[in-house]
Amino acid sequence: RANPTQRAYDWALGVGKTDSRTISKFQGFGMQVWGAAETLDKHADRWVPGTGMRIDGSAVTPVNAATYSLYKYTPHLRGNMSFWLLYWRYFGDPSV
C-alpha cells in the first residue's frame, strides 16, 4: 500500500498475532522485524533433514532449515505461498 496505516506497521510481520490472541510486547515495526528474525532463527536451529510435519492437513517435508522455519512461523500453506510470491516480486529468483 502506498500509505499503510499505523496498525499495518505495528503488526507488519504478524509477530505476536496468533490465531487466538495478541501479544502486545511485539507491537511496532522494529519489534516486528526483531521478533520475526529471532523466531525464524530459533525454528531453523531445530530442523534436521527428513523432518516431516503436517500443514493444513497435508504432509510436508521441508528440504532446508529456512523452509522448515517458515512453516513453523506460519503453519499454513497459503501463508508460505504469500511469502514466496512477495519474495520473488521484490527480490527475484533466489537461486541465481
As a percent range, the share of strand residues is: 5-15%
Query: Considering DSSP H and I runs of 4 or more, what fraction of the residues is helical?
Result: 40-55%
Radius of gyration: 14 Å
| Beta strand count | 2
Low-confidence parts, pLDDT < 50 over ≥5 residues? none
Q: In sequence order, what are the helices and strands, one letter per element?
A: HHEEHH
Oligomer: single chain
N- and C-termini, Cα separation: 28 Å
Average pLDDT level:
91
Strand line-up across the major sheet: 1-2
Number of helices: 4
Described by strand count, sense and barrel closure, the largest sheet is: 2 strands, antiparallel
Approximate shape: globular
Structural class: mainly alpha
Note down, in words, how this protein is organized:
The protein has 96 residues and is mainly alpha-helical. It is 47% helix and 6% strand. It is built from 4 helices and 2 strands; from the N terminus they run ααββαα. Strands 1-2 form a two-stranded antiparallel sheet. Strand 1 (53-55) and strand 2 (58-60) form a beta hairpin. It is globular and about 40 Å long. The two termini are 28 Å apart. The model has no long low-confidence stretch (mean pLDDT 91).
